[in-house]
Amino acid sequence: MNDRASPLLEPFRIGALELRNRVVMAPMSRYFCPDGMPTEAVAAYYERRARHGVGLIITEGTYIDHPSAASYEGVPRFHGAGLDGWAMVRERVHAAGGRIFPQLWHTGSFRRPGDGPDPTVPAFGPSENLNEYAKTTEPTKAMTEADIAAVIDAYAQAAADAQRLGFDGVELHGAHGYLIDEFLWARTNRRSDRYGGDLVARTRFGVEVVTAIRRRVGPDFPISLRFSQWKQQDYTARLAETPDDLQRLLEPFADAGVSLFHASTRRYWEPAFEGSPLTLAGWAKRVTGRPALAVGSVGLDQAGLRSAAPASIDALEACLDREEFDLIAVGRALLADPHWLEKVRNGRWSEALGYDKALLDQLY
Ligand SMILES: Cc1cc2nc3c(=O)[nH]c(=O)nc-3n(C[C@H](O)[C@H](O)[C@H](O)COP(=O)(O)O)c2cc1C
Q1: Distance 354 CA to ligand 1 centre (A)
Q2: Spacing, Cα 89 to ligand 1 middle (Å)
Q3: For the segment 88-123, what is each residue's pLDDT rounded down to a tens digit?
Q4: Based on the structure, what is the number of domains in the chain?
Q5: What is the CATH number of the domain that holds 160?
């Protein structure tokens, strides 16, 4: 990799936000926040990636303030006392020269009976009886209009809090089969009211979330939308069968004020639709005209276990050079090696570590 010429190292603007380079830390849940509180260890973990050059950090998913939002233990909350921890994380990342968005999360029907903070609160989703997907025997509660309004408010409050605490933007977790995505997917959204129906009608819930956030944070605060074809429940699922579908899906979000589309794929280079080599991030940029962020197996071999050959970075640079997408998120390679970007930049690629699931718990 030629240091000066690398498009990975070029700055990029999202509205008024200037990023020092194109490398983004992908959102990754690490479950190390007791009682939902980001601790000193969490601040040090993100600060380390910022200090070693990552342009933008998207945090692990963090719960919005609604009793139905939470599912897994150890996930940070973006409300109440959790905000004190997040203020510290934000400060430390900025002091290290980085930028940071919290990833706002509602887990939808993944919530299990007995999950906190109030174990009597059921899973919420667009429709009931989603248990075949959520792998629980308890039915999901089909959200009423009042539930929808309360959850939208919780998203908007979290974004307003992020702005007040000095975060550089927010990301909505609209992917992988969680709440916003459950509304988008026909198999989990069986509603017959205005929140269900065809693809555009199914965007209504997510679009109302974006609209409510935009109203609270004003025109300039970046909002990223993470979306995916695949679901945790079904890796082969697809929201959009064609580029036209993708346009119908994403345009309402762009109109509502999404600043960045984060196309979550398992391998960033794979063509999204037959008949064209364009990736999902590439299509998102093309159909919306907004900046796009790609992700999936950067720096890893095909099995996602070892450090990939340096040539793989050339292919990534070529995508940035031709402006197919604008930013690239790196997940497991950055977990394994906080120095990953420095090593790539300095040609010390052979020293970059591969990803080893067994070591995950030690990789903070
Ligand atoms: C340990 C771990 C936790 C993850 N947690 C989240 C999460 O909280 N939110 C999310 O949107 N994606 C999550 N992901 C998916 C990553 O953001 C990313 O899309 C995926 O790891 C592919 O990128 P990679 O190949 O560079 O690792 C997680 C991935 C891993 C490995």
Answers
A1: 15
A2: 19
A3: 999 999 999 999 999 999 999 999 888 989 999 999
A4: 1
A5: 3.20.20.70
